[in-house]
Amino acid sequence: MSFQLILDNVSKHIRLTEAEMELFTSYLLPKKLKKKELLLQQGEVCKYSAFVTSGCLRGYSIDKNGTEHVLSFAPADWWMADMYSLISQQPGVLNIEALEETEMLLLSKVNQEKLYAEIPKFERFFRILAEKSLVANQQRLIDRLSLTGEERYKIFCNRYPTLINHLPQKQIAAYIGVSPEFLSRARAEMAKAR
């Protein structure tokens, strides 16, 4: 198995020696999911961060009315976890599902803690990831409160350019908080405007 993608991802924020790379990759567990297979189910404790090497994951919750709310997507070269559950080790609120056949590398919370002790610069790496996630989630909340559906769709297109024509329309609609019908009309109007 090639670890190049995850090593490139890490090297955006920290520099590792050959020995540190070997130790880090020894803590990773390869995992494959089939389309619609769950990595994590709402109510379970999240024990891993997942780094997607191919395919795509989505994180979503289901409200008491049975409505799905998509919180995030993780295409290749992205990390995903139920952060609340991973940090608190309490039952989670997210389902994490493969939208297609997906390959990933899992880093357990236990091994992440070992990394912090053995290679302290990993604390910096995961702090940067957490900060970026916090900023993105805050901006998404503000966008949801203050922008139109069309504006939120344009932001989605900028954030996930590889997923625009790749994901089912209902997944994108659930992420930006509109009906699939609204999204279909918005897409048609945007295409006419070009």
Structural features, described:
This is Crp/Fnr family transcriptional regulator. Pfam families: cNMP_binding (PF00027). Residues 31-116 form the Cyclic nucleotide-binding domain. InterPro entries: cNMP-bd_dom, cNMP-bd_dom_sf, RmlC-like_jellyroll. The chain has 194 residues and is an alpha+beta fold. It has a domain at 4-119: Jelly Rolls (Sandwich). The chain has eight helices and eight strands; from the N terminus they run H-H-E-E-E-E-E-E-H-E-E-H-H-H-H-H. The strands form two sheets. Strands 1-8-3-6 form a four-stranded antiparallel β-sheet. The protein has a four-stranded antiparallel β-sheet with strand order 2-7-4-5. The longest helix is centred in the C-terminal third of the chain and has 26 residues, at 121-146. It starts with a helix and ends with a helix.
